[in-house]
Amino acid sequence: MKKSILLIFALLLSINLTAQENITLSLDEAISYAMENSYSAINASRDIEAAKKKKWETTTIGLPQISATLDYQNWIKQQVSLIPAEFFGGNEGEFAEIAFGTKHNMNASATLNQLIFDGSYLVGLQSAKVYLQISENAKEKTDLGIREAVINAYGNVLLSEESIKIIEKNIITLEKNLEETTQIYANGFTEEENVEQLQITLATIKSQLSKTKKLKDIAYKMLNITLGLDINKTVVLTDSLSSLSKKNTNLGLLSTELTIENHIDFKIAKNTEKSNELLVKLEQSKALPTLSSFINFGYAGYGESFDFLEKDQQWFDSSLLGVSLKIPIFSSLARSSRTQQAKIELEKARTNLTETEQKLLLQLESAKTEYNYSLEELETSKQNLALAERIENKQQIKFFEGISTSFELTEAQRQLYTMQQNYLQAMLNVIATKAALDNALNISIN
Structure pTM? Predict the structure, then answer.
């Protein structure tokens, strides 16, 4: 009794661990998971955090800066100076050897620096904001790319799964046909060539099944990488190829217009233009004066021995207040040259912005065309599959009635297998072209 209880407990524990090892995802869930856990999404989020830190780093340049120094000097051999001896009542023309200062010296000071005005700093603050915007736009661009990549990877897994099911079903039919044909041949009612032809077809289909199973394993691992999972992690997909193709059939998208200003590629190009505008301002700001101030407090101690830690050590304090004004006057036209270069880069950025706008419009038209074609191709493939199934079925009947050859049956079977794969690929194309159209329209949700 005790052993039975232990076995049941072990079985339940094994089932629980297996459930924990697997992850079940619909396509929407897979996209949401990848948005948080994919390698690209994680690094894009880190880039935003780094940009925020960079923005604060730039801001602190204009805030008070405090530094402290502590200097200790020990004259192992003090420097000797020669002083005319007559200063001390000596003979004229003679010199006295004198060592100035004490053997041990210690100085401690603290300085507060404050930037009052710097044109470059003001431009730097604006640049830090733009830099953060660039990182946030890069994250949005990454998310769109992740979404499309997950859709394609998810669809490829479903394609391989459906292909395996169809091929296995075809193999069952072929094996049955081969068995019946072999019996007919044994009874002398058909030629051996018909049996051999079916054997060739069956062997070919089995080889295709083996290849498709290997491709399925690769497709799963590609999906795992896209999701940010270990490639050996077991993932169970809940959506089917047919349901996703129906879900992604939306003729309304073909008439949807694009708001260029909202497209992430346009915003990125706009960021580049803004960055170059700031570079022009930065070069121009270098012609402005820079004003800063500082205040310093210090203490100094001296002695013939190291007594600085003693209570009776005498310390001498000092303080200093200063203001510094730097005025650029003449740079031999170097500043003007740098400003002109920055203006040229700005004009290039504006040209690229116009080019980006045109490319986005063309990309949208192309994506709509591909999506519309995929919808038409899906319907055509569905009709062709139905026709191929009827033709293959008729050829089977004719073959076993002895009014058609094995070559005719084989040709009908090959046509059926091709139409089956075409139909599966057409469903996948609808899903993939819909994802591409969503990207062209800057749609980031299903």
Answer: 0.82
